[in-house]
Amino acid sequence: MGRLTTHVLDTAHGCPAAGMKVTLQKVGADGHAQTVKTVTLDSDGRTGGAPLLGPDEMAVGRWRLLFEVAPYFRAKGVSLPEPAFIDTVTLDFGIADAQAHYHVPLLVSPWSYGTYRGS
């Protein structure tokens, strides 16, 4: 059964990004993005056991994840310049198979980030 999940790791502190806000958007053919949901990550840097999209919500198409990086690091007491080097990580990706598991992790610090399609 298809589903979409995420996991964020704070590489500056070596821990999950607990408390980070993440927004999921569906991107239409016209490029307009519609917010599907916004979540706050749990103590493990995940969405609290529930996928971002479950089997009944999965759909082929373009999607976007917005990771609120600067507010997360500021809340942890990190002194960031204004504007922050990385404020919001915007990750556009495609779902080609609605029956598959798409896992989109983020490894992030105030100065860099990386992602990949996980399992």
Write a structural description.
The chain is mainly β. It has a single domain (3-115), classed as Transthyretin/hydroxyisourate hydrolase domain (Immunoglobulin-like), CATH 2.60.40.180. It has 1 helix and 8 strands, in the order βββββαβββ. The chain has one helix at 69-75; strands at residues 3-10, 15-16, 21-27, 33-40, 61-68, 88-95, 101-108, 113-115. The strands form 2 sheets. The chain has a 4-stranded mixed sheet, with no helix packed on it. The protein has a 4-stranded antiparallel sheet with strand order 4-3-5-6. A hairpin with a 4-residue loop joins β7 and β8 (113-115). The two termini are 14 Å apart. 22% of the residues are buried. The mean pLDDT is 97.
Short account of what is shown:
The chain is mostly beta strands and 119 residues long. The protein has one helix spanning 69-75; strands spanning 3-10, 15-16, 21-27, 33-40, 61-68, 88-95, 101-108, 113-115.
Query: Low-confidence stretches at least 5 residues in length (pLDDT < 50)?
Result: none
Coarse morphology: globular
Contiguous helical run count = 1
Order of helices and strands: EEEEEHEEE
What is the arithmetic mean of pLDDT? Answer: 97
CATH architecture tag: Sandwich
Beta-strand percentage range: 35-45%
Report how far the terminal alpha carbons are from each other: 14 Å
The spatial strand order of the largest sheet comes to 2-1-7-8
CATH topology type: Immunoglobulin-like
How many strands? 8
* CATH class type: Mainly Beta
User: How much is the radius of gyration in Å?
Assistant: 14 Å
- Overall structural domain count: 1
CATH homology group: Transthyretin/hydroxyisourate hydrolase domain
Structural class: mainly beta
- Please bin the fraction of helical residues: under 10%
- Major sheet description: 4 strands, mixed
